[in-house]
Every structure is written in C-alpha cells, then in structure tokens.
Amino acid sequence: MGQKSMGVDRNVAGLLAYALGWISGLIVILVEKNNDFVRFHAMQSIVTFGALTVLNLVLGSLLGFFLFLIPFLNLLGVVLWILLMIKAYQGERYKLPVIGDLAEEWSRKVDL
C-alpha cells in the first residue's frame, strides 16, 4: 500500500482516526507526529464529530424545543462517519467544507 504510520499503512491509520469519532481522532493525533495525511484525518475527525457531539448535547438540553433535529443530526453523523472512513481508506485527503480547511490548518499547528 505504501507509507506506514503508527505501524500500519497510512490509509488504515486515517480510517482509524474516524473509527470512534472524535475520541479516536484525539488518540491518533496524540500518537502520530509526522504523517500529514493521518494528522489531517485525525483533526478532521476531532472537529467534525466533536461539533456533532456538542450540537447533540445542546439540542438535547433545550427541553425538546429542538429535539426533532437530533435524529437528523445523528443520521448526518453516520453518513459522514462512513464517507470519511471510506475516503481515508482510499488514500484520499477528502476535505469537508469549512471543517476540512480548519482541520488542515490546525493539524499543522498542533504539536502535543
């Protein structure tokens, strides 16, 4: 396949960054120090699924006012989860609108 990261092919490491949403993204960004492709996918996972988690919490706490939006938000999360894992596994640096640019910039700046 090619270049290795974290002991596996970089496309597998990119997929793993999405496997558990923002949690796996955080783990991958803490472990991977060199591979830009993997760090990008890890940061995109953190930003995307972190934002969806926060939105779910906020909408759920508004006492039902926006409760009807939660199933749509969850469906969006599942669709993005599958899409992003497939794109990472295919070796593609697939950038979501706005979030992808932020993830690319922040993945270069973060040095944990």
Q: What is the chain-wise order of helices and strands?
A: EEHHHHH
Q: Biggest β-sheet: count, sense, barrel? A: 2 strands, antiparallel
Percentage of residues in strands: under 5%
Q: How far apart are the termini?
A: 28 Å
The computed structural class is mainly alpha
The total strand number stands at: 2
What would you say this structure looks like, in words?
By secondary structure, the protein is mostly helical. The chain has one domain. The chain has helices at residues 10-19, 22-31, 36-61, 70-89, 99-109, and strands spanning 4-5, 8-9. Strands 1-2 form a two-stranded antiparallel sheet. Helix 2 (22-31) runs antiparallel to helix 3 (36-61), helix 3 packs antiparallel against helix 4 and helix 3 (36-61) packs across helix 5 (99-109). The longest helix is centred in the middle third of the chain and has 26 residues, at 36-61. The two termini are 28 Å apart. The mean pLDDT is 90.
Highlighted features:
two-stranded antiparallel ribbon; 5 helices; 112 residues; mainly alpha; single chain
Provide the fold topology.
Layout: E1 4-5, E2 8-9, H1 10-19, H2 22-31, H3 36-61, H4 70-89, H5 99-109
Antiparallel strand pairs: 1-2
Helix pairs in contact: 1-2, 1-3, 1-4, 2-3, 3-4, 3-5
